[in-house]
Please model this.
Amino acid sequence: MESLKQKSVLMLIAVTAELMGCFSARTLADEPIKIMPLGNSITRGYYGSTDDNGYRKPLYLNLTNSGYNIDFVGSQNDGDFEDTNHEGHDGWHAAEEGTDDDIVTNIFNWLVVSPADIVLLHIGTNDITEADQDVNEVNDILDEIDSYSEDTTVILALIINRVPYSPTTTQFNDDLNDMALYRIANGDDIIIVDMESALDYSTDMCDDVHPNDTGYAKMADDWYDALDNLLGLAPAITSTPVTDATIGWLYTYDVNAAACPNPEYALTTYPSGMTIDPDTGLIEWTPTAVGDFDVTVEVSNGWPPDANQSFTITVSTVIRFDAASSYSSSSDGTTLSWPHAIGSGEDRILVVGIAGEDNSTTDLTISSVTYNDVNMTLVEDSSETVYSTTTYTKTELYYLLDADLPSSGTYDVEVTYSGNVSESSGGAISLENVEQQDPEAVAANSNQDANTISTNTTTYTDGAWVIDVAGCSNSGTLTATAEDMVRRWHETSASASAAASTKPVDPAQETTISWNFSDTNSAIAHSLVAFAPIKPKPIISGYVLEQNNTPVDGVLISPDPNGESVLTDHNGRYEVSVPYGWSGTVIPTKAEYDFKPFKRTYSNVIANQWHRNYKDISVYDLDDDGSIGWGDIAVMRECWLDTGSGIEGDINNDEIVDFLDLAEFIFVW
Model:
């Protein structure tokens, strides 16, 4: 024969499977699940509970700490925690003739006033004490709940026994269990919990019928298990991974998952040095090499299946390629023009390389190079001219920094020569994340009668990029031959060729840029320039919390000056980036909140700043003027030694305004 516990657990599993669809979608919604604790003094918790909370406080904390959005409802209030509503009535029976002070008479109206999605019912102890126990009276309570709403789920307790052991209570529970199973078989939303087996009656009771704090905590655990089975939601990852990273820069990705209870985050595949916060899902990593790196995140909370997310992070150098364009002309003319589409990245630069061929060096002299009608700057010492038989081939480089570049879009590059040039090619390369300063290295070279060219230069900043232009006196193909060179544009005209490339150099060192040409006996001119990457933007991050360490989301975090404001996430976390060497303040703001410190001041920030937290101290702003000061002291003085619940100035909630409140206020002030 199955025990009560076995039968109850089996039915619990069956009913939970049917009810999952009703509650899982609401578990994480803005509207909380409404739960009515219903019963007698054991529900109220007045006897045996040192703080009048009974099982309700530990149950509430277990649920909310697990991420469940719940609200206890009822006309009664007892205890010292956030949500003390209940319908626990001392000495009441399930039903009692000659009086309206019983559960069955009142439950319908209670539910009308305080609607509940779930009822936690523990009733029968006083009935057994008066020797008038009858499970049919509990059956009538269930009928009244169904009469109010058949969508209300009842978690029905097989009630605790007493000291000394009462076989009558066990028999009552047997009958209660059979009655509930019959109703469940006929479609009633009932879950059975075996409270009788939950307690150790030698240590968990304060008198013959009431638990002590330890006993109430065990009851809370059984209620929690039933609610967890009913409300639980397997994790589902809702965030999109960040798949781009930069060598030497902090990579972050805050993995978010919908789940109840709260999930735990773990990495199962990840590169060396990568970490994840098991509670918040924040991934942090500083890449030390360029390449592709596979990552898999696993999210679990005890509700199968676990959620997994796999993605690949591509790590590149700091400087990023944006776009390239080019054009060539074989007809004598003084101008060469073509469109170039520039992107909207940060710290951009435009580099234009020119390769011209003519029998006059005077005509090859460039008067101006413009982009969007803005004059570009000649890279000093980048001009190179080589002579072959009857003509000269000349290369030269120009650049324009972000401050003089237009917003993203397509604009014209225009090259103007001093005279008519017979063969001319030009190209533009735009880059992002380039330090806004003059070039850090320049070189030029030529070969008079060859089909190869190699030019060396030395960079001084890790991750610098070399951009070059090569021009040939014959028509053919230029092929980049040095390691990590990427040919960005190539032009062939009637009797000349030109090409340009980019090459990242990390770490800083001497490097070679080299080309092969498809024809022989050519004159080749070569110009190159190196630009440094921007310095990493330091990150300032932390949490914004209430006094009880509850996260505060939606707080505006504002760096001033030259910082981009952000809002704290659901964990109260923020992360802002500031320019390298930045000095300024970071201020948190949210309506009806006051924070300590009200701002943080920084000077010459060149490294990441962690754990820069703020706390809400609005409880101390007694005069609601947005600050903590003498006005609040005045409010406290007006209420000095007043007693009662909810008095202004009762900061520590001990129902009196006294020196303890003043001391806490002064500490914060």
